[in-house]
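Dear support,

I submitted the protein below through the web form. The confirmation email said the job was done, but the results page showed an empty box. After a refresh the structure appeared. I'm attaching both so you can tell me whether what I see now is the final result or a partial one.
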Amino acid sequence: MVDPAGSTRRGFLGGAGAVAATATLGGATALGATAALGGTAHAQPRRRTGGRTVAVLGGGVAGLTAAHELAERGFQVTVYERKSALGGKARSMDVPGSAKGGRRPLPGEHGFRFIPGFYRNLPDTLRRIPFPGNANGCHDNLVASSEVMLARTGGREDIRIPFASIGKAPPVLTPDAFLRMLTAFFETFARLPAHEIAYFAGRLLVWFTSSERRRTQEWERVPWFEYTKAARMSANYRQLLAVGITRNIVATKAEVASTKTVATCIEAFLFNAMGRGADGEPDRVLNAPTNEAWINPWITHLRSLGVEFRTGWGVRDLRLAGGRITEAVLQDASGARQSVTADHFVSAMPVEHARTTWNAQVRAADPRLARCDKLRTDWMTGIQFYLTEPTPIIHGHINHIDSPWSITSVGQAQYWPGRDFRRNYGDGTVADCLSVDVSEWDRPGILYAKTAKQCTREEVAREVWAQMKAGLNDTGRTVLSDAKLHSWFLDPAVELGGTHASNDEQLFIHPTGTWYNRPEARTAIPNLFLSGDYVAVDIDLATMEGANASARAAVNALLDEAGSRTERCAIAPLYRAPELEGFRRQDDLRHRLGLRNAFDLG
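What the results page shows now:
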């Protein structure tokens, strides 16, 4: 039966009634939708002299980062967010109707938070958000995982990979040492033929020694599936090193995913695992629900800096006159049209929403914006399973590598030492939350032979649960038990069960050629700046880190335009091994001459 109002059900087996669910997103609403100004009033911020007012259009990580950086530099900032809550896809949300006995509602989310150590811009922001008792602000709320699991089906043993501690002196890299390191690494997690392991390691060596010019001009045009020659390799090779990496980590299809995007991500992870250029351990999560550990303290801090918020305000149009944006037309929480003026505008919405606000005049003023119409999004959406017994499968994330729906998961209660799940959340019987991301919505599942988009919400929950059990319960142990399943919560942005499935919060993806269509933070319109994970930054992946870095770039461009003398935002690039710099310089010359990379044997 479809649950038209929400996303939560008690277990599958007893026919228990649904927990009441509404569109309300709980705790975040305390941040509040500002009352409508009525009619067609103009929402004009209080003005300071010198072009100091900024309208930030979007209240996710990109918008909040931009507001943070601008407010610290004395700008008067108002953030407008179309949702009723701030934080974008990073926020957590209350499960409606789940709280009893004075407890908080069960914590739900769009998808689990994952903050790897190679992120450096986002961690800097976290350090600057005060949190009671933390010397390093919200950054001290990060908890490191100690391992990762690749869950196999068909009775095969699951593969567990421990993470080495950060702080050890990294080895000096030579091509031989690099190949040995990669070969040893892949031998530990996959029973692959020796020649396939050697070939894959060689392909990574080609990438690591490729110049930026070759990466952008050549490898951006080559699909990862083709770059790794997956079609001619074993099924294990394809599943683990081609399809598994792209669908479960980068959330795109190996047959079309840009090699530049996939290999950039792998390079960052490997250097992180070696302790190079890292902020911390390779796999980190928060020590409480995201709003409690990060988003709510952030909003509180931004308010203390003078930032104002309007939630439930969606951008409908940007109006241009004299070559500048003169006003933004928004629809407020009551449905009334409002005209917002400011000296500068930062568009911090996801690309699928931002580009609908660029009318013909705006596009004519900056024809490059039209390229954003070619950028693509896909579904990567979360579902949480609430369990009546603690179920810490491993101390880290699980990649259900053989699941048709490309599932990843993490047991959350083990990371929340300051929370007693039964005492703090729900009805007193829930002891754990298994948070799951579903990356593939267009392949048939194992229960109903339907794609996720063709399923009802309850069928999606049953199917995901079955696919997880297929990988975790197939070697003689009962890791997941139906008897311990209390309820589930599917992201309310997803609408299923009707004639057309929809998802209001999709993920920006990276097929070949995407890099050429990604815009810069500065537009040709002097007072319009772009911020979001689709904006071109060093990390070529839709991430919170990319959103944060793009916001810093947008603020720097705004400061230049405003003639501000304040310090520019620091933007930390991804780490590059200095020992390989000579090889990259040599490769740049070879690429200019039309030659292959020196290590590229085809």
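Response: this is the final, complete result; the empty box was a page-load delay. The CA atoms of residues 312 and 333 lie 4 Å apart.
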